[in-house]
Amino acid sequence: MRRHLAVAALCLITSAPALALDMPTRKAGLWELKMTFEGRKIPPQTMKHCTDATADKLMNGNFGGSAQQNCSKQDMTNSNGSIVVDSVCNFNGATVTSHAVVTGSFDSAYKVDVTSTRSGGPAAAGMAAKGSTHMVIEAKWLGPCAAGQKPGDVIMSNGMSMNVLNLPKPPAR
């Protein structure tokens, strides 16, 4: 079970290259995120994330900042109400080319559709050393964070929890 928590956190972090640019801040409160994967041996994951403007900016800075240092390309455009992000990044000897389309509202519900192609480097968790993956994140705002929760808290569907703001910052290149 602990492995699924780590895998889900890794998936969110590895989607950061596609989302590391200056994305809109999500509405403060409790968000439910459902992630599904194609091309990876990872079951669907559901988590609830308590956030506020400060936590969203810190997460973008902690994970997006290192991604920007590792990316030779990060282009973001707004097209017909969608945010499109194309990136080429290098991590641990692997080149990851991603195309992400973000639709919806950061106040109520949004969807992130990410297609990535990976080449070189060691195999990543649940993924071949070469190949394409498709990840969809469907997020919806549930309301205020629950009593006792603080921004950055992530609760997995299996009950495990962590605060993503307490994770070590990824190393810069």
Q: Quick one: how many beta strands?
A: 9
Question: Helical region count?
Answer: 3
Radius of gyration: 15 Å
Distance between the termini: 31 Å
Please provide the ordered H/E string of secondary-structure elements.
HHEEHEEEEEEE
Describe the protein in words.
It is a single chain. The chain has 173 residues and is of the alpha+beta class. It has one domain (2-166). Helix content is 20%, strand content 46%. The protein has helices spanning 2-14, 16-19, 53-70; strands spanning 29-38, 45-51, 71-79, 82-91, 94-105, 109-119, 131-143, 153-156, 161-163. The protein has a nine-stranded antiparallel sheet. Strand 8 (153-156) and strand 9 form a beta hairpin. The chain is globular and about 45 Å long. The termini are far apart.
